[in-house]
Amino acid sequence: MIGSDGEQVGVLPLAQAIVEAEGKGLDLVMISPNADPPVCKVMDYGKFKYEQSKKANLARKKQHIVLTKEVKVRASTDQNDMDIKMRRARKFLEEGNKVKVSMRFRGREMVYASRGAEHLKKIAEDLKDLGKVENMPNMEGRQMIMVIGPLKK
Questions:
Q1: What is the pLDDT of residues 10-60, one digit of tens each?
Q2: Rounded Cα–Cα distance for residues 153 and 95 (Å)
């Protein structure tokens, strides 16, 4: 048994440990049930649970969840439209999110899939100052997909 101040009290029978804990107005909490003998601590369990939830909330608040944002382009997208899409992709990368660039091919555009791959490589080259390519362009059905992840700060 461990006392409320953190010092080791010693090995006590369960009934005696419970009586001592209740005498101080605290709870007897089993910390390590698999130890031989099991280790218990005298503490205010409500306060302990409250502090644990506060720590969990603080850890959750500090973490950054990386989202995957998508930018859709076509093989025939003009330069002006492409500049706007690149601006959007830059914004996503600056926020720390991944960018999934997908290029859809329709009908006879499938013949020019190699031109689409070159287009995606040019996009990756334009964004290399903010992110690195995690998945190189690859075909999935009628769609070519590339994922760009943000660089570490």
A1: 888 889 989 988 988 999 988 888 888 889 999 999 998 999 999 999 988
A2: 11
Contact 90, 127 (CB under 8 A): yes
Characterize 66-83 residue by residue with b for buried, 16 or more Cβ atoms within 10 angstroms of its Cβ, and e for exposed: eeeeebebbbeeeeeebe
pLDDT score of 147: 95
Q: Record the pTM.
A: 0.59
Looking at the chain, list the stretches that DSSP marks H as alpha helix, in order from N- to C-terminal side: 14-23, 45-62, 79-94, 113-126
> Coil, strand, or helix at residue 38?
coil
As given in the structure block, the two tokens for residue 66 are 């990386």
What is the phi/psi pair of residue 95, to 5°? -75, -10
Largest CA distance in the chain: 84
